[in-house]
Design brief:
By secondary structure, this protein is of the alpha+beta class. It is built from 31 helices and 32 strands.
Length: 905
């Protein structure tokens, strides 16, 4: 064994002895040559005890081979330095310690390797902390996944990073489904989901103190949950917010119970305040000798003529000193002591403020308080004194009544009858007592009467019936009312009132006759009105029919002609500019033909009759002008009296109205103007905003109207056109404007034309967040879209449209195949046809919405215009597009459904 290493530099020795790191030097046999004093704290041996011993004797068996190999490489010259080597040693006490060390080779004066320098630190505490932290995290994850509270981790954008089993159970989604979702997908609406994402952005930016949040979420099956969310920030190693940890509690039932509890409290408080008896609650004081009033209901306020605020908190002997004399105070004390309820019968109460008769019922609550429920018996006592007088008075009323008043026993015998019986049965009143029903009524009626008497006695409820009696001069009608008379709580006899209603019956017959006559007259009037309205509508429709047929045939001629040229001359396909020109003309003609069909839809749409919405008045006028073009342009040109249309529009004007009805107003005014210009002329339209109105002016250069015609032109059936007119056009205009709460003014002079000035309420401006739409488009720039259509050409066309916008289409040939693909994959959007075999588009859309409520669905169908005209909108479809559909219309529809809008086109 060599000598311990000698350090010539005293300063270096001081450093080695005072450093916190362990320093050791080994020879080639791994024997200790030098150890500084910090080694003793970790190894448990003094430097002297380890001097000359083999270092591998301290190495943990699992790390020894690795350490032997590394040191061998170092002494062989293959390693000059070993950095951050971690291994375990076993100290003198037998404990395992973790060490992190750096080894350097030491050469002698000749440059040969003969020693190894080791600088090490005891990292046992760090390793144990790290191990404990990992075990703690694993335990925490296990706990989080087993606790009944729904827990989730989300990143700053709201996407789920971790959810426990309870979270999946609450929201009815699988773990795999939630990993693809965001908290926005659990919101009850698209709008609330966007607000939640904006809230997360604000929290990341401002980092306020976490506060409990209450809100509502939607489960996979569409159930709405009331939830309470406890949350906190999740931060990275640098302290930056990297997400949120949330714990969600379903408080739907608790909220219902809380609301029920509040309602119950309100209900019982209402009962307390509105019960017909006075109720007072007392708290015993002075060892039960006196009582303080702690509650006083409204009936008690009315009885005593004093407010609850004036008595609560005061002793009963201060407020009602007379209770001593009436003995009620002693009763309070006895009930307070023994807890047995007691009734205090009506007694006279008197003090300096009030007097009267009171009856009390007193009982003790479990809390030791006593309650008295009492009534003001003053009126009852007075009523009892007047009962005999009242009985005499009512007996007189019965005797002199115009009705027959009587009483029967269970056998149908008379127990009582007033004198009026003689008028009904020709029998003196003093002879009817004891006689039976069979003595006064025909057998069949008497039998029916007896059964009703038995019914009233058995069920304890009254009844009425009507019958007629054929007299010597005329038929008489009577109404009998039977009711039970109780004795000792049981039906004892039957009371009855018989009334002669012959005169009333006669009046009813006359009234029914007059009512029938009025109903027939009203029916005739409605039929006449319907015929006039239909005639007016047919007249307008017939005027447009020839022009629409003309336009449609023109469009079909272009399509057929240019397609024939291409099909019959294949050599033209090599001329690209010519082919492009022909195809462009065919496309334009097809669009014109589709527009002609849509004009018919705009002429009459029953489903829109009650719809009030913002209407672009400039666009509405353009549509009305285009719709009536066959009348004001083609027909007038054919007869050599052309009409020129001019417009003066103020931009961006939106009125609040029904599009179909306003279109009918403009159509009628245009027809009226055309009729007023038999020699041709100018028809002009102007729009402007005026305060809260949108003003529309329709002017012509026609024959004009004098003052008499101006006053009457709005009256129904007034016309200056003879048999050619119905007189309903301008009356219809006035009615529609009135329903819109608008105004109409006519400016006209004979020979100077006519101007109709219409004022319609302006629509309320609706602000749209274009930034949000652009953001949504940017986020959804490349969508995975499922296209379902049984027509192969339509599938190909829609797929090419989508690929043009860099979307990823997938297709299905029918509804069943489409549903299978949707269930197996994830799609951002579904586009479906309506009429398909096996499963139609309506059923497919509904099934998709049940599985994914927020999934947007667009229906592209040849029935679109008819659905729009009939107001038919499948509930599970976000938007309906009419075939043929262009790329621009499809692109616009995709943008609208992704931004939350849903408008048929």
């Amino acid at each position: 064994m060599g000598n311990p290493i000698q350090l010539s530099d005293e300063l270096a020795r001081l450093f080695l002895e005072n450093t916190s790191s362990m320093v050791a030097v080994f020879d080639k046999e791994a024997r200790f040559l030098y150890l500084n004093s910090p080694n003793e704290a970790t190894l448990g041996y003094t430097p002297a005890e380890l001097q000359g011993k083999n270092a591998f004797s301290l190495i943990h068996p699992d790390d020894k081979d690795r350490m032997v190999s590394l040191m061998a490489k170092a002494f062989d010259g293959r390693l000059d330095k070993i950095q951050s080597l971690t291994y375990r040693i076993i100290n003198k006490q037998g404990r395992v310690r973790h060490v992190q060390a750096t080894f350097d080779t030491v050469r002698d004066g000749s440059g040969n390797l003969d020693k190894l320098l080791c600088v090490a630190d005891d990292i046992t505490e760090k390793v144990e902390i790290r191990t404990a932290f990992a075990e703690s995290e694993q335990r925490l994850r296990a706990v989080m996944d087993t606790v009944p509270v729904a827990i989730a981790e989300i990143d700053c954008s709201g996407r789920f990073q971790f959810v426990n089993a309870a979270y999946c159970e609450v929201f009815e989604y699988s773990l795999e489904a939630l990993e693809r979702m965001s908290v926005k997908d659990l919101a009850v609406s698209e709008e609330s989901g966007q607000r939640l994402l904006l809230l997360l952005e604000r929290l990341v930016e401002e980092q306020p103190e976490p506060q409990r949040w209450e809100g509502r979420n939607r489960t996979r099956t569409g159930r709405i949950l009331d939830v309470v969310v406890d949350w906190n920030y999740r931060r990275d190693e640098e302290g930056r917010v990297s997400g949120f940890v949330t714990a969600i509690s379903d408080v739907t039932e608790q909220k219902k119970m809380s609301e029920a509890l509040v309602q119950s409290r309100q209900r019982y408080q209402a009962m307390f305040n509105h019960i017909a008896s006075g109720v007072v609650v007392y708290q015993p004081v002075d060892d039960g000798e006196d009582f303080v009033i702690i509650d006083f209901n409204r009936t008690a306020e009315k009885i005593e003529g004093i407010s609850a605020e004036a008595v609560i908190g005061k002793k009963v002997t201060e407020v009602f000193p007379g209770i001593r004399d009436m003995g009620l105070l002693d009763l309070f004390r006895r009930v307070s002591e023994n807890g047995r309820p007691r009734h205090h019968p009506a007694c006279f109460y008197k003090d300096g403020r009030t007097t009267g008769w009171r009856s009390n019922y007193v009982y003790r609550l479990a809390t030791g308080e006593i309650v008295t429920v009492y009534n003001d018996e003053t009126e009852r006592v007075r009523a009892r004194e007047a009962l005999r007088e009242s009985e005499l008075r009512f007996r007189a009323l019965v005797e002199y009544s115009a009705d027959h008043i009587f009483m029967l026993n269970s056998e149908g015998a008379y127990l009582f009858s007033n004198e009026r019986v003689e008028h009904f049965h020709r029998t003196p009143g003093d002879t009817v007592i004891g006689r039976r029903l069979t003595d006064l009524y025909p057998p069949e009626l008497a039998d029916r009467y007896q059964r009703l008497v038995a019914h009233v006695l058995a069920d304890g409820c009254g009844t009425s019936f009507e019958y007629e009696v054929q007299g010597p001069d005329d038929t008489h009608y009577y109404v009998e009312t039977l009711y039970p008379i109780y004795k000792e709580g049981k039906p004892w006899a039957v009371g009855g009132i018989c009334r002669d209603v012959t005169t009333r019956k006669q009046y009813e017959k006359e009234l029914q006759q007059k009512t029938g006559e009025l109903e027939r007259a009203l029916k005739d009037l409605r039929q006449a009105q319907r015929r006039f309205v239909d005639q007016e509508r047919q007249r307008a429709l017939s005027q447009m029919a020839s022009g629409i047929a003309h336009d449609f045939n023109n469009a079909l001629s272009s399509i057929q002609g240019f397609s024939d040229l291409l099909l019959q001359s294949p050599e033209k396909f090599s001329d690209t500019p010519l082919v492009k020109r022909y195809v462009g003309l065919i496309n334009t003609a097809a669009r014109d033909a589709a527009q002609v069909v849509r004009r018919l839809r705009k002429f009459y749409r029953p489903s829109d009759e009650e719809t009030i919405e913002p209407v672009d008045v400039n666009r509405l006028i353009k549509e009305a002008v285009a719709l009536t073009e066959p009348v004001w342009k083609h027909k007038t040109q054919a007869r050599g009296a052309p009409i020129i249309v001019e417009t003066r529009f103020q931009e961006q004007l939106s009125a609040s109205g029904n599009r179909t009805e306003l279109n009918e107003v403009l159509t009628n005014l245009i027809f009226n103007a055309v009729d007023a210009m038999p020699e041709g002329g100018s028809l002009s339209f102007g729009t402007r905003r005026e305060a809260g109105w949108i003003v529309l002016e329709v002017s012509d250069t026609g024959v004009g109207m004098d003052a008499t015609v101006r006053r009457q032109c709005m009256n129904p059936f007034f016309t200056t056109k003879g048999e050619a007119g119905s007189g309903l056009g301008l009356a219809t205009v006035q009615g529609i404007v009135a329903r819109h709460q608008g105004q109409i003014e006519i400016v006209s002079e004979p020979g100077n034309g006519t101007t109709f000035v219409l004022r319609i309420p302006a629509a309320v401006n609706r602000e749209h967040s274009t930034d949000m739409i652009e953001k949504t488009e940017a986020e959804r720039s490349s969508l995975k879209v499922l296209v379902v259509d049984d027509d192969e050409h339509q599938r190909l066309l829609l797929s090419e449209y989508l690929k043009a916008d860099k979307h990823r289409p997938d297709t299905a040939a029918n509804g069943i195949e489409g549903m299978r693909k949707f269930a197996d994959g994830w799609y951002d959007l579904v586009i479906t046809d309506r009429a398909m075999p096996e499963m139609n588009g309506d059923t497919l859309a509904r099934t998709i919405k049940e599985a994914a409520p927020g999934k947007p669905v667009i229906m592209v169908t040849g029935f679109g215009d008819m659905m729009d005209a009939a107001g038919e909108a499948p509930p599970a479809v976000d938007m309906v597009l009419s075939k043929p559909v262009s790329l621009d219309r499809l692109r616009h529809a995709v943008r609208q459904v992704l931004s939350g809008e849903a408008v048929s086109s």
